[in-house]
Amino acid sequence: MINKAQFSVIEIVLVFSLFAYATAYLYDSKNPIEVDNDFTIESFFDAMYYNGSIIEPAVLENLSNSSVTQDWSVVQSQLDTAFASYSLSVSNLTTTKKIFGCDATYNRYVTKRVVFIYNQSKFNFRELILGVCY
Amino acid sequence: MTKQIKKLKSHLGKKKGYLEIDFAISILLFFILFTSVFLLYQSYRDLENKKLILTQMDSEARNFCVLLVSSPGVPQNFENDINSMIQPGFREATSNNISQAKFQVFNSTNYFTILDSIGADYFIYLELRGLSTQTKYLTFGTKHGVNSLFSNYVCYSNYNGEIVRLFVEAWK
User: Is residue A32 a contact partner of residue B142, using CB atoms and an 8 Å limit?
Assistant: First the structure.
């Protein structure tokens, strides 16, 4: 025969189980499934790169000047169609210049492409750094 | 003496009544809590199953998107003979652009033949759209219904001098 004290123990255990499940359930239902968007960003940067629209302003941008010297409107309109918030920088070995900027709330995915320039019988390069903010 | 025995019997009778009520409440509480926990667990399991299916759909949509924009397909000239297709791919063999001949094969081939060839576990919807002109170059399959589970992925490539957006949706 189960006595009152044993019933109380069962009740307490069940109440704790209930709260444990409820907590786990609420935590999981509020935790959205994370989608890995890295290839979306990489493929977009590749498409821009092969499209050529980003090459000219990247090559001609004067990095020693603090303000933007080239027309980036085409690149901006392309980026606007794909991402809500993004940053873009151009760099050589020594200087990095921000063209567009964004503040990440949760995370920022950053990817780079290198553009080689053959000018006055020497190779130079520009690095393009795209960041997508979440 | 008789009075005392009667009083004791009455007291014991009342106590027995209280114990029975307490026992009944305990049983009731036990079943309410047990049912609640069981229902909550079932709901949790359903959610977990949905998550598992969504993860598989994510993976399928992503893999299909990556495959189509990165690969020219196997064999590379599968567009000439759809029956020879082992694996689809939209990319031109000699450049990083998307080939019109390859994606048009999807328009002219039976939906389920394509799904079989890629070994899809779910229904697939594809949409290829130009970013600047907003021209829809390809629509393959149908989008998910109201009560369907679905997952989608977006990839980009070039077609005809324009950046194009490939939207892939896997649904059930």
Answer: no
- Tell me the two tokens of residue B141: 């399959």
> Rounded to whole angstroms, how far apart are CA atoms B51 and A43?
27
pTM for this entry: 0.75
> In this structure, what token pair is assigned to residue A132?
């997508």
CB contact under 8 A, A28 and B40: no
- CB contact (8 A) between residue B155 and residue A39: yes
Nearest to A100 by CA among A125, A68, A58: A68
Q: Report pLDDT digits (tens) over B105-144.
A: 888 888 888 888 878 889 999 999 998 888 999 999 888 8
Instruction: Provide the β-strand partners of residue B139.
Output: B127
CA distance A66 to chain B (A): 30
Dist. CA B20–CA B31, nearest whole Å: 17
Beta bridge partners of B113: none
**Which residue range(s) make up the domain with B45?**
2-171
What domain count does chain B have?
A: 1
Residue-wise DSSP of A67-134: S--S--HHHHHHHHHH-SSEEEEEE-SS-EEEEE----SS-EEEEEEEEEEEETTEEEEEEEEEEEE-
CB pair distance less than 8 Å for B54 and A33: yes
